[in-house]
Amino acid sequence: MDDAYPESIPLEIDRPLLQRYLRAKWLLFWLIGLGSLGAMAGFARAGNHLEESGRLSITEIAAVIARGVGMGLLYAFIAAVVFYLVLSHRQAARYARSLDVTVEGPFLRIRYELLARVDRKLHFRNIMDYSVIESAFMRHMGIAVLQMSVPGPQAQSLLQIAGIKNCLTARDMLADIDRLRENK
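^ that's the sequence the OP posted. Answer follows.
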């Protein structure tokens, strides 16, 4: 069968949507991670306060615990927002701006910048399969992730690329190109 695809095909990235998705995902990461630590710290502080107090009624115990957990969550929320703004907000924009996925002959080239510049070329024969992933959060954000299985340190490594426009169509096109160019 003849290869009907050009030698170089850039895949279109929805940069504004990708940036919005990454910012929401990373903010949730900070909020959940630090929120759980804050709640545990607040609960421990409430436990110490209860030990020091004498006999308290059930409602007073519940109020002390609620106040401790609430203060822990408040401090954690503030810390999460600060960590997000300092460490993640600009990184999401940098990644979305720099992501570039291109078919170059028998290779799939993926370039992006996060903490370091990455420029990776995968030969189509090394890509085992293609999947499109959409969690409930991703569907809510209107984004999908193209996932490819490639050989790696483990039996199979997963490479994920979020933000490709028309991800299902792109997956089918890559699978077809893979089939045609696998042995080149």
